[in-house]
């Protein structure tokens, strides 16, 4: 059984180029394992 892959992004929105790369990478990985793309906002109050 394969382990799930989780891609975390913390902070600002991704650029269009970065988003395209992430989508392409996730599409390739889907055949081998489950993939989650998790985007979190940064919390400047607690940094």
TrEMBL record:
Gene Ontology terms for molecular function: methyltransferase activity
GO biological process: methylation; rRNA processing
Keyword match Nucleotide-binding: no
Gene3D superfamilies according to UniProt: 3.40.1280.10
Keyword ATP-binding: no
Signal peptide as annotated in the record: none
Superkingdom of the organism of origin: Eukaryota
Keyword set, alphabetical order: Methyltransferase, S-adenosyl-L-methionine, Transferase
Family according to the record: Belongs to the RNA methyltransferase RlmH family.
Protein name according to UniProt: Uncharacterized protein
Species per Swiss-Prot/TrEMBL record: Nymphaea colorata
């Amino acid at each position: 059984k394969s382990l799930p892959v989780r891609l975390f992004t913390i902070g600002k929105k991704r650029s269009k180029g970065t988003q395209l790369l992430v989508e392409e990478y996730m599409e390739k990985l889907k055949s081998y394992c489950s993939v989650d793309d998790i985007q979190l906002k940064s919390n400047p109050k607690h940094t």
